[in-house]
Design a protein that fits this description.
Chain A is an alpha/beta fold and about 400 residues long. Helix content of chain A is about 40%, strand content about 10%. The chains are: A alpha/beta (about 400), B alpha/beta (about 140).
Chain lengths: ~400, ~140
């Protein structure tokens, strides 16, 4: 990450400051369009809008209290077929930017003309909690996020340790608020693309010597605070994941977790990195003649219908765990409150550790399942003891 | 003489159509025997074996899955076995995290000429799974 940054005056709050700044970028023709969450006309929900008119920005909300659609999915839909000729700034949360980066590596999004702008994020409320009473939900969110209290947030947000560009590098510009004095924020460039924007906006010091002490101090204070909170979150994450693993490990407990699954596949549809045009688990490959089911029912004593629920969940994990960004969108989408977000996030983290990968932090790291090293993973190769039984079967 | 109700595991042996199956052919040519409860299943290349096809037998009735492809450097598609190794590592990681006994999956290279090694792998894995006992998922009706 580049050390380049600028101060952002935010007397009326960071959201208002960022909206003002974005308006300026549109007026100065630095971006052609924005993709960002905007309050819907009814006032109680938020949706990603692709917009070019600065007037619409008045209803924008860079950090809405909920995440009805994962921003990575929105960026993927926008740029799936190519870069396009327009410069688009996408204002998203760090996990959404990470999903967009994973999609770009999977060739499901194109980011050359997309400028990812992220903010320090304290999480979002579970969608169901918020929809019970949107007004109270918005208040609860405002209160909690200003105090960096993650307790009312999504379970995956509560243990998120990649909530800022320092732990989730990859976005082009980042708005840092943690540890900043009231009424100020820092704008940090995370890439040469981001630096160019700061330059075009006249915000970039031409060389290091011209940087003001105030900016240096603000950047340092922000960095220190983000690292402190990040370390505490990492510790909490480890602890919570250890507890979670105890509650799900083993056939008995695992099947208990998925017992209320209604096979709606919402988790798959809401997942930003589950991109297949035809999902294997909805394909003809798992739709078999009755004899097959009867044979399985006989073997197992009985067969749950529709079948292959556990195969769907573990199999889906085998498809997306490597790219899982722990956003928790799947859990929001689950109508029966199965902790799918927590389970997938745990599976993803362990699988990524096993293959030495972190999802969505760099466009350069190759995807583990389409690359390899010759000298690695020898622990999965079963060692062979020459002539196991040393006996020729002499019955020919 | 086997006890009447002794546990006989059901084992699926995925082998690539070049070295793995070649090992089986060599074993046959030498009249080497492997346990009858090991079900061979040929795939074009272990690198083309999806993780789901390892998980599916484990959920639906197998006690263990063993995968054999060419030795490193011998893959007929250059790097299929290296890709398979990563995929097996992924499956083992998922099973491990979920407490589903990753040791029920083995990955071992077998070359075309290694009939003995093929038979030993089938036999050794069979003994290993017999010791491990039945796969708890295979008798669950609520999968």
């Amino acid at each position: 990450m580049s050390g380049n940054g600028a101060m952002l005056a935010a007397e009326d709050g960071v959201e208002a400051a960022l909206i003002g700044w974005l308006k300026e970028t549109l007026n100065k023709d630095i971006f052609d369009a924005l993709l960002m969450p905007v309050r819907t006309p009814a006032g109680d929900s938020f949706a990603y809008l692709l917009l070019q008119d600065p007037a619409i920005l008045d209803g924008a909300s860079p950090l809405p209290p909920v995440m009805p659609v994962q921003g990575g999915k929105a960026i993927g839909r926008l740029t799936m077929h190519g870069d396009g000729s327009k410069r688009i700034a996408a204002v998203v949360r760090p996990c959404e930017a990470r999903a967009a980066i994973e999609l770009a590596k999977l060739e499901q999004a194109h980011l050359d003309n997309v400028y990812l702008i992220t903010l320090d994020c304290s999480g979002v409320l579970p969608l169901a909690d918020y929809l019970e009473d949107p007004v109270a939900g918005a208040d609860r969110f405002r209160e909690a996020s200003s105090a960096w209290d993650r307790s009312p947030m999504r379970p995956t947000c509560q243990i998120c340790d990649r909530f800022s560009i320092r732990q989730a590098p990859g976005s082009d510009l980042h708005v840092g608020t943690l540890g900043c004095a009231d009424g100020t924020a820092v704008l940090v460039a995370g890439s040469p693309k981001g630096e160019r924007i700061l330059e075009q906006m006249g915000m970039r010091a031409e060389d290091e010597t011209k940087r003001t002490d105030a900016l240096d101090a603000a950047l340092a204070a922000w960095g220190t605070r983000v690292d402190e909170v990040g370390d505490a979150q990492t510790e909490r994450r480890r602890e919570v994941q250890r507890e979670l693993q105890e509650t799900i490990a083993g056939a008995e407990k695992l099947l208990d977790v998925f017992r209320s699954c209604i096979n709606c596949h919402n988790c798959q549809r809401a997942c930003p990195v589950c991109y297949c045009r035809q999902c294997y688990f909805e394909s003809g490959a798992l739709k078999l003649p009755p004899e097959n089911y009867l044979a399985r029912a006989e073997r197992k004593g009985a067969l749950r219908f529709p079948p292959d629920t556990l195969l769907f969940h573990i199999g889906r994990a085998s498809h997306m765990a490597i790219s899982c960004v722990s956003c928790g969108a799947c859990e929001d989408a689950c109508p029966t409150a199965i902790p799918v977000g927590q389970v997938f996030s745990l599976l993803g983290e362990r699988a990524q550790e096993a293959l030495g990968y972190v999802a969505g932090v760099s466009l350069e790291d190759p995807l583990p399942l389409v690359s390899y090293e010759m000298d690695e993973l020898h622990d999965v190769e079963q060692p062979y003891v020459e002539t196991y039984r040393n006996q020729e079967v002499q019955d020919a | 003489m086997r006890e009447e109700h002794a546990f006989v595991p059901k084992i699926v042996y995925f082998m690539c159509s070049w070295c793995g199956s070649g090992g089986a052919e060599t074993a046959a040519a030498h009249h080497l025997r492997y346990p009858e409860n090991v079900i061979p299943s040929r795939v074009n290349c272990t690198g083309a074996l999806p993780a789901v096809h390892i998980l599916r037998p484990l959920i639906e009735g197998a006690d263990g899955v063993v995968i054999s492809g060419c030795h490193p450097g011998d893959c007929h598609y250059d790097d299929g076995n290296f890709r398979a190794r990563r995929r097996v590592a992924l499956v083992k990681s998922l099973l491990d995290t979920l407490g589903l006994e990753p040791e029920r999956v083995w990955f071992r290279y077998v070359a075309h000429g290694e009939g003995r090694r093929f038979v030993d792998t089938a036999t050794e894995f069979n003994d290993h799974i017999t010791r491990l006992g039945p796969n708890p998922l295979k008798t669950r009706s609520d999968t």
